[in-house]
Structures are given as structure tokens and as C-alpha cells.
User: Fold this.
Amino acid sequence: MDSMIWMSGNVGGDVEFRTVRDGLVYADFRLGCTPRYWRDGEWVDAATTWITVNCNQALAENIRASIRKGDAVVVVGRLRTSRWNDSEGTTHERLQIEASIVGHDLSRGVARFQRTSRVQAVDDAGKETGSRTAEVADGSAEPDEGAETGATGRVPAAA
Assistant:
């Protein structure tokens, strides 16, 4: 059974991106959530809760073009626990969200949605290497204009 969770808060730092084997893209960021409550005629901030948000594949690619430090976001995903031992043998645990949805919190600002186009990437031998989003200069995600395509209409994978 999965533990699904949603949280809203602010992106606490720069989003970290990495590409691993076979071109898989990952993005991680810290989400800070600070509850506010009314006390003695004024708003008071409670302690901030920090959690790491992990994203992959198309979501990570879209976050690269959309999410910045300080943005107010809403995250939906699976609650996970990361465990590790340090050099002294002490076991540590950290809660993380394996995100399936990330979006701007529209109760705190405005955004303009732009749908991405997915194209099937192929290598030089014509073998499918997965889908990717082609971006144009304005940051929108569209197929590469004038990109070479094979008989399948797919865009070749980038070198």
C-alpha cells in the first residue's frame, strides 16, 4: 500500500538536476512548509517543515523549465523514507516525496500553462531510445522545428 500525500509550500533552493544512464532525467528540490496561525491579534509563523521532493522523467524535464527557488508550489506524490548509515555506522532516516504532480500554487500567484509535446527519440540506427521534449528558445516545450525525422516521423535522439 502506498502512502499518498500532498503538500504546499515554497521551493527552498535551486532545483538540482542530473541525467543518468540512458538519458533518464531526475530533479530534486527542498520544499518548505510554514504554518501560520492567529495569536493575540497577529499572524505568527510556526516552525518550518522541510522535505525533499524527488521527480523523474517528463516531470523532471518540465520542472527544469518551470520551477525556481522561492516559487509557491503544490506537490502530490508518494511518501517515502530514505535510510542510510554514515561513516560512524549511525543510521539516519529522511522523509521524501516521490512526486507524481508538481504545480504552482495559484492561490498565491498566477501561471500560464503550456502543454508539452512528446516525441519518440531514435538513435542513429533507428532504435527507439525513449520520449523526450524538444524545447524552443522561449522555454516552451515543442518539437524541434526543422528537426530531421525518419520514416516514422520521430525525432532522432540528440548526440
Notes: Residues 4-108 form a domain with the OB fold (Dihydrolipoamide Acetyltransferase, E2P) fold (CATH 2.40.50.140). The longest strand covers residues 72-85. The longest helix spans residues 57-66. The chain has a mean pLDDT of 81.
